[in-house]
Structure formats: structure tokens, C-alpha cells
Amino acid sequence: MIISRTPFRVSFFGGGTDYPAWYRQHSGAVIGTAIDKYCYITARNLPPLFEHKHRIVYSQIENVKNIEDIQHPAVRAILQEFSIDEGLEIHHDGDLPARSGLGSSSSFTVGLVNVLYALRGQMITKKELGQEAIRIEQEVIKESVGSQDQIWAAHGGLSRINFSSDGDIEVCPLIVSADRRIELENSLTLFFSGISRTADAIAKKQIANMEAKAANLHRIYEMVDEATNILHDKRADISEFGKLMTESWRLKRDISVEVSNDRIDEIFDAAMDAGAIGGKLLGAGGGGFFLFMSAPNRRDALRERLRGLVDVTFKLAAEGSKIVVYEPQGF
What we know:
With about 325 residues, this protein is α+β, with helices and mostly antiparallel strands. The protein is built from eleven helices and twelve strands.
């Protein structure tokens, strides 16, 4: 039995410029971090003693004889890409809900690819792992997803990721002092809106509006440099990071009506009224997790104002996908 542990991520700036439809023409960049909340994938060979050949356990349970009968699109696609012959049992567990803006789908893809290589007795590099997950999601499953989530899931860390028009992806770890990292960490709080959504449908609307909203995306891209400078400059007030998050959220909200709704706007306004410096809805929008920045002494007031929501404490810069149990068996 082999288990992979793959982190979720929080994206601070640049979201939207990581879609191939954008960066293949204009280049792109994002700043964000893996966090200490994880997706766990367990896999083992299943002996031919059951009526089913493959057993897939996630929010549903699938017992099937053929890979093409698997309903979970990522599992079906990945097993087909690996040309799996012997039976497999795969279990998924996550620290946080799926479809919530934390890159959970890509963490699942990265974790499953990683665990299947390990089951073969093989290990691939972080770069190869991220690129393989991008290929599977964008070219095999044909989902409308960007290219940042897979990279953070594979690499981990607090980083800037650059996307070149030639398709090259560069991961640049952000060298931030320990004090600055703690200051940032102590200012951030995640709140679950209670709304789960399918990012693919929302992303399609955003992609369709990209050229019409090119000015928004160019400004979102510029913010990556500004945010980097704030983190690196010890004299800069960290609150400027939060104010920039709000500007980024408003620009993103303007790209597509699918990004927000009355309930999301109500939560955002309540948080700002309670003393948040800035904030945004993570991921494609439409639901999922809010990220708010506030002075540490205002976090209790923020939690009280949003007491109907679940808040999640987290730490920055978790390591990328790793195999935590390794017993090579082969297919």
C-alpha cells in the first residue's frame, strides 16, 4: 500500500493569467503558496478475488470491472494514461472540502499520478510531476483549468510562478525573512463560504471574456510584481498586501458575472465592515473559501462577524506532493 500526501494552495495574485489561452499570447505570473492542508491518495494492487477489478473510494464508492466504466473523470483518465492492467483500489481523503478554490482537483491529480509512479517503483521530479498533471487535466480530460494549481501541488512552497508565451513554466521561490513570513501568516484567515462549485464551468466564462477584459488581466499581472516588492521590503506595511488583494478581487469580479453573487458580496462586505484590511474569494469564484487579511488584534472581531462560517487556520509553504508510505509492488 502506498500513500501520497499533496498540499492544497492559496493563490494571492495573478490568477487568470495562468490560463494557457492567456499566457500563450501575453505571458503570465502568479504569487501564492502551498499550505499545510492536504489531499491523501492511498493505492494498492487489488487481488483478483472480487467481482470487481477496481475499487475507487472518494465521496462515492465505485466498484467496476473496466477502467472505462469509472465515473470519476480524473481517475478514469489517469488509469488509462498509465495503461493499468492489474486491479487497483484507490482511496481519497482530504483535509478540506473539494471544489472550494484551494486547488483540490489538481492536488488530487498530482497525488494520484505520484502514487501510481511509486506503485511501479518509480519516482519522477517535481517539474515532471507538475507538467504531467497539467497535460492530463488540460489535454486528456480537457478541463478549462489554469496551470498554477498543479505546480504548487507538485513543488510546494511560497513562490512566484512565471508562465511564458512559449509554454515554459518557471518556479521562483520567494525568499522572505522569517519575521515577514510570520507577519503575513498571522494576518491571514480562511473562511469557508459553505458554497461548493465546479470551477470548470465558471472558468469557461472567464476564458471567453479574456480579450474583452484584457485591461483587467494586464493589471492583475502587474500586481504580482507589486506584491513581491511588498513582501521583500521590510519597510513596507504588510497591510498594502491586503489592500492589493481587494483591488485584485474587484478586477477579477468584473471579468465575469459568474465569479460572484449576492451571498458572496454580502460576506465580503461584512468582513470589510468588521475590520478586514483586504480579501478575495479564492479559485475561479462562485463559492469556496475566502481569504481575508486583518491586523492580528482584529481577527477575533472578524471571526465573530463571520461566525456562521467555518474559519481555518493554516501555515504557509508546505512541501510539495510526497510519498509518505512506500512499499513497491509493481503492476
